[in-house]
Design brief:
Helices cover about 65% and strands about 10% of the residues. The chain contains 4 helices and 4 strands, in the order H-E-E-E-H-H-E-H.
Length: about 150
């Protein structure tokens, strides 16, 4: 299981999603006030501006669901077809999450009238999409190999 390259791809993609929970996605600099930090687990701010900010529960749900799907996919190595379907579903979720998180950070910055500074962790879903796609290709290659061996018998 661990010796397969697609397992490593899926584990790294899952680790990136878990790291997204703890790393800041964006920072908002309000002129003459404080800096607000956004991570997937929520905003780190004072109570004065908390009414203006959007809820981050959907971010947390997306990140946890995607990380869980990628981890489950690692352990389905005996069921390659199901593993490929989970990879495709994870890719679609990751693309949707990336679009949502870009909109969310931009919209939150507009609501509190702040300057938005994006952090490096905002590209983690894109890197996860690439790694999951590479894992999908390797799983598909394994499936084709197994099917060709069954034809020879």
């Amino acid at each position: 299981m661990i010796q397969r390259i697609q397992t490593l791809f899926l584990l790294i993609a899952s680790a990136l999603q878990i790291a997204l929970l703890f790393m800041p996605i964006a920072e908002y600099a309000i002129p003459d006030k404080e800096i607000i930090v956004l991570s997937a687990s929520g905003f780190k701010t004072d109570a004065v501006l908390s009414e203006k900010l959007l809820s981050t529960n959907i971010n947390l749900i997306f990140v946890c669901l995607i990380a869980l799907l990628l981890l489950i996919s690692v352990f389905l190595f005996k069921y390659r077809i199901l593993q490929m379907r989970i990879c495709v579903f994870s890719i679609l979720l990751l693309i949707g999450f990336q679009l949502f998180i870009i909109w969310f950070t931009w919209n939150s910055g507009q609501m509190i009238e702040a300057i938005t500074y994006y952090k490096i962790s905002i590209i983690f879903p894109i890197v996860s999409v690439i790694l999951t796609y590479l894992a999908y290709r390797k799983i598909n290659k394994d499936e084709k190999l197994v099917r060709s061996l069954n034809r020879i018998r």
